Amino acid sequence: GAVDAADIYYTSTDKIINRGQMDFGAAYIQDEYSFLGGKARLVAGLRFDYAHFHGGEFSIEYPSEINSFMAPYQINAIETTTWTALSPKIGLQYKPTIETRVYSGYSRGFRPSILDDMCRSGRIRGGFKIANPNLKPETIDNLELGFDSRLFGYLRVAASGYYSMGHDFMYYTSTGQTIDMGYAINPVSRRENISKVEIYGFEAELSTQPLNWLMIFANYAYTHSQIKDYEVVNPLVDFNLTGKFLTDVAPHIFSAGVNINVGRIKASAYCKYTDSMWINDSNGFDDTYLFAYKYPSVFQVDTKISGKVWNTIWASISVQNVFDVKYYESKGSVNPGRFITG
Q: Of 122, 187, 266, 315, which has the fewest Cβ atoms less than 10 A away?
């Protein structure tokens, strides 16, 4: 992947340049083995990843007053870097019946940074972020155990649990600074590597089709995401995030819905509850905009109805956020409210 971009201002002299290139390569081997008469299957694999970053730059040509605040963040030549990784995976599946499956697995993931976080400083939703050319790839070790089954021919149930440990986890953290962007005083963030992050959770799903024209479904998800080890680089500026919870992650999410299909008419209704989420990385009180520790929980309802008008022509109308609930989504952005399309 590569980026060679520039923000060119036709009403001023500014030209903001950000460029960089990431070359990827990967090779993997995988094998599987069936036993117990085909009811059980073991899959194992190993993947090799190669990533090479080069040609990075963030610079401003002839900055005017409107963008002069970004001048200190220029990086004329970012150091070339190469990373490699070996990522194993193994999975075991057992099907005691055609309608029931039990599975478990372990895998390791490897992900280099996106170029935008390494090569570009600029406005983001909720503030301003500065480039971090020293970002290392993150790795995550994941364990999963689950099952799914169909009961009585029309009831499907599924559940799974997982445990993940992330190393060098890439995460936006506050620099403790604010910046005057001309229209507001906004916090400054920077994508950093968190030494160790623990994430575990549980998911459950239930769906049924008691009638040919009716389907009902519901699901629930629980997530625990916490920083277990954070390296403080500068005690005068950095906040020790060890023990803090990740922002923009709802511990509890519940959703349910119904689909109806009768003749030429299709209709659906869907509701979702999202639990409260921490606003900032320090899990502290936001005394600038929201005056709270967390974004409040929210309950939203969406609907859609469509009909076959003629031959292959369909007409439809959908309403998102039926009750026009105003709430914060993340990074201080406000949901637009009721949204109707047709």
A: 315
């998911």: which residue's tokens?
A: 203
For tokens 């021919």, the residue is 153
Full domain range(s) for residue 182: 23-53+77-298+321-333
Q: pTM of the predicted model, to two decimals?
A: 0.87
Number of domains in the chain: 1
The model's pLDDT over 191-204, given as tens digits with 9 standing for 90+, comes to: 999 999 999 999 99
Residue 82 lies in a domain: yes
Output the 3-class SS for the chain: CEEEEEEECCCCCCEEEEEEEEEEEEEEEEEEEEECCCCEEEEEEEEEEEEEEEEEEEEEECCCHHHHHHHHHCEEEECCEEEEEEEEEEEEEEEEECCEEEEEEEEEEEECCCHHHHHCCEEECCEEEECCCCCCCEEEEEEEEEEEEEECCCEEEEEEEEEEEEEEEEEEEEEEEEEECCCCEEEEEEEEEEEEEEEEEEEEEEEEEEECCEEEEEEEEEEEEEEEECCCCCCCCCCCCCCCECCCCCCEEEEEEEEEEECCEEEEEEEEEECCEECCCCCCCECCCCCECEECCEEEEEEEEEEEEECCEEEEEEEECCCCCCCECCCCCECCCCEEEC
**How many residues are given for the chain?**
342
In a domain, 4, yes or no: no
The pLDDT of residue 97 is above 80: yes
For residue 281, what are the CA distances in angstroms to 159, 234, 342? 31, 16, 39
On whether residue 59 sits in a domain, the answer given is no
User: What digits encode the pLDDT tens for the residues 274-321?
Assistant: 999 999 899 999 887 788 999 999 999 999 999 988 888 889 999 999
Tell me how far apart the alpha carbons of residues 119 and 116 are, in angstroms, rounded to a whole number: 5
Q: Does residue 229 lie within any of the structural domains?
A: yes
Q: How far is CA 137 from the centre of its chain?
A: 16
Check if the beta carbon of residue 148 is closer than 8 Å to that of residue 156: yes
Distance CA 79, CA 66 (A): 29
